[in-house]
Design a protein that fits this description.
The structure holds two protein chains of two kinds.
Chain A (H helix, E strand, L loop, with lengths): L1 H19 L7 H14 L2 H32 L1 H14 L8 H8 L3 H25 L3 H9 L4 H36 L7 H10 L3 H29 L14
Helix pairs in contact in A: 2-10, 3-4, 3-6, 3-8, 3-10, 5-6, 6-8, 7-8, 8-10, 9-10
Chain B lengths: L1 E12 L7 E13 L5 E5 L6 H9 L6 E5 L43 E4 L11 H11 L4 H14 L15 H13 L5 E5 L7 H18 L2 E6 L2 H7 L2 E6 L8 E2 L3 E2 L13 H18 L2 H6 L10 H9 L1
Parallel strand pairs in B: 3-7, 3-8, 5-6, 6-7
Antiparallel strand pairs in B: 1-2, 1-4, 8-9, 8-10
Helix pairs in contact in B: 2-3, 2-4, 6-7
The chains are: A mainly alpha, B alpha/beta.
Chain lengths: ~250, ~325
């Protein structure tokens, strides 16, 4: 089905570019060829890896900050009464608008871009993981406590495995947001990354370059999506085991 | 297994007034002896505190007062050497000498208990082997020794072939076996079972009841089985304890124990006249308690008529 979807997209693209016949909508095969050449023989790959590095670090940092806090809030009512209202108040603030502030504080380098992504992804992860941790069926807690588990044991053997599916779902959903925020952050006061590459070629009216940047950024987003999908398939393979067992966690 | 002076109550938030709580007593200065190495059934209608009793013994709930004592005569599962073994360490079925027994005390209560919950409580993210080995792992048992334990239990319950499967891939009966294995592998002196067969279909239920009797025959630990099935209680147990809670604001009462059909008998017949006589006796005992005049007169409004589901079914049939 994925192949058919790709074919349909390309078909519509061809159709549109042939009908309109404008310089800013080149035909797909030309774009792909150009992307390939730019990636191998020019500096597109450099910008790809810089962007990948920024997203990768930002996602990892967001998980490392959000997951412990979310699990704490989900399993401890005192922590929940402190953390959750704060998260609820901060969540609706459009954090991309904080870009200038973040740049004033953290400079124009990688740090400000990574921090902006973390600020946004944090909330997407926090709420999903907190709900997953809070919704763990009491029978699993009873079950492991009766085997003599300490609080750490409960965390390792019940809370984390039960919250993992939620974490991976949230991460997959976040890849779209992360690439979008990265694009914005890189398009300001920057000379590296795919966001800059796209904006720069747009300003130079080099539309093939611009499309090559867009395609590469899309591939980057898809790459992260499939990495999280693969991790979910590996670490949560029990979810695909059997059909008649209810997976209430 | 002795229960001394057990008191426990629940605080329930009142539906009429906000921020006001109703104290519902479950047990008040409750005493009971459970004879060692026997299968005991605790039977009673829903909400009478059967499961609460098990959770209290297992340490999942803490009582307001009271104590539980296990004596040396409550034999540890799997320490009895089977007939024909010359007694030199372990034999082919994995029996181990006394010093190889894990310290299986439940840190919550200090008692050697294991509990099988109503819906088994297997972890869907762990394979069958990991589920069974978890208890030993948590008590920091030596890995190779734990492995031998788990293997021998899986052989005994004929679930070796399911070792690498996830609980989601198992049938109800198989999951029940895994849950039993996970409890037995801890070598408890007291095995607690909370309506363990209620989610199985009739045929599996009967098979699992027989399996329980076989396991008990083999391991000789004390078993307390909570059930609301009169037939099950009569069939599997040595002693039947009928429990009853007539009014919400009164603690539960337990009738004097009744002799069950006996767990040790060679020929156990499901259709025997003896079994049906026993079931009828239990039925009448449950009814008598409901019809104590002083209770039903004084609390016509608040007391609910409680009917045992199985009894209801039988009445409808007749």
């Amino acid at each position: 089905m994925k192949k058919i979807a790709v074919l349909i997209v390309f078909f519509l693209w061809y159709l549109l570019s042939l009908l309109l016949d404008v310089s800013f909508l080149p035909q797909p095969h030309k774009v792909l060829q150009h992307t390939y050449l730019q990636f191998l023989y020019a500096d597109l790959s450099l910008h790809f890896f810089i962007s990948a590095y920024r997203i990768g670090i930002a996602m990892a940092a967001a998980v490392l900050i959000a997951a412990p806090l979310a699990i704490l809030a989900g399993r401890n009512s005192l922590a929940d009464t402190i953390l959750s209202p704060m998260a609820q108040v901060l969540y609706p603030i459009p954090k991309v608008a904080l870009l200038p502030i973040v740049m004033l504080f953290f400079g124009l380098g990688d740090a400000s871009k990574i921090i902006l992504i973390v600020l946004i992804i944090f909330f997407q992860l926090f709420f999903v993981i907190r709900d997953a941790a809070a919704g763990i069926d009491q029978r699993y807690i009873h079950s492991i406590r009766s085997l003599g588990a300490s609080k750490t044991d409960i965390l390792v053997h019940v809370t984390i495995p039960a919250a993992l599916p939620g974490l991976f779902t949230a991460l997959r959903v976040s890849t779209g947001t992360a690439t979008a925020v990265l694009f914005l952050a890189e398009s300001f006061a920057s000379i590296t990354g795919l966001g800059w590459y796209i904006i720069d070629s747009w300003a130079r009216l080099d539309y093939l370059d611009m499309y090559a940047g867009i395609v590469t950024l899309s591939i980057l987003g898809a790459l992260f999506f499939f990495i999280f999908d693969g991790l979910e398939r590996y670490y949560c393979r029990w979810r695909r085991a059997g059909t008649f067992f209810e997976h209430r966690v | 297994m002795k229960i001394r002076d057990l008191s426990c109550s629940f605080r329930v938030s009142s539906s009429r007034k906000q921020n006001s709580f109703l104290t519902v007593p479950i047990f008040s200065r409750f005493d009971r002896n459970f004879a060692p190495s026997k299968i005991h059934s605790v039977i009673g209608p829903s909400g009478c505190g059967k499961t609460t009793l098990l959770y209290l013994i297992a340490g999942l709930l803490s009582p307001a007062s009271g104590s539980f004592e296990l004596s040396e005569s409550d034999r540890r599962a799997g320490t009895e050497k089977p007939a024909g073994n010359n007694g030199s360490g372990k034999n082919e079925t994995g029996y181990l000498s006394a010093d190889q027994i894990p310290k299986s005390r439940n840190p919550l209560t200090g008692l050697d208990t294991a509990i099988i919950l109503q819906d088994f409580g297997l972890f869907p993210w762990k394979r069958v082997y990991e589920n069974i080995a978890l208890g030993l792992q948590l008590r920091k048992m030596d890995t190779s020794l734990a492995d031998r334990y788990v293997q021998s239990i899986m052989t005994e319950l004929r679930i070796e072939h399911l070792k690498a499967a996830y609980p989601g891939e198992l049938s109800g009966g198989e999951r029940q076996r895994v849950a039993i294995a996970r409890a037995i592998v801890m070598r408890p002196r007291l095995l607690l079972m909370d309506e363990p067969f209620s989610s199985l279909d009739a045929m599996h239920r009967e098979r699992m009841q027989d399996l329980l009797l076989d396991i008990h025959q083999h391991h000789k630990m004390t078993v307390i089985l909570v059930t609301h099935s009169i037939g099950e209680a009569a069939y599997v147990s040595d002693r039947i304890h009928i429990m009853k809670k007539d009014r919400q604001d009164e603690p539960a009462v337990m009738l004097p124990e009744i002799e069950g059909l006996g767990s040790g008998r060679k020929e156990r017949k499901r259709g025997s006249a003896e079994l049906f006589t026993l079931m009828d006796r239990m039925r009448s005992e449950l009814d008598i308690l409901q019809d104590i005049p002083s209770i039903s007169d004084s609390s016509k409004k608040s007391s609910k008529k409680l009917v045992i589901p199985e009894q209801k079914k039988r009445r409808n049939r007749e």
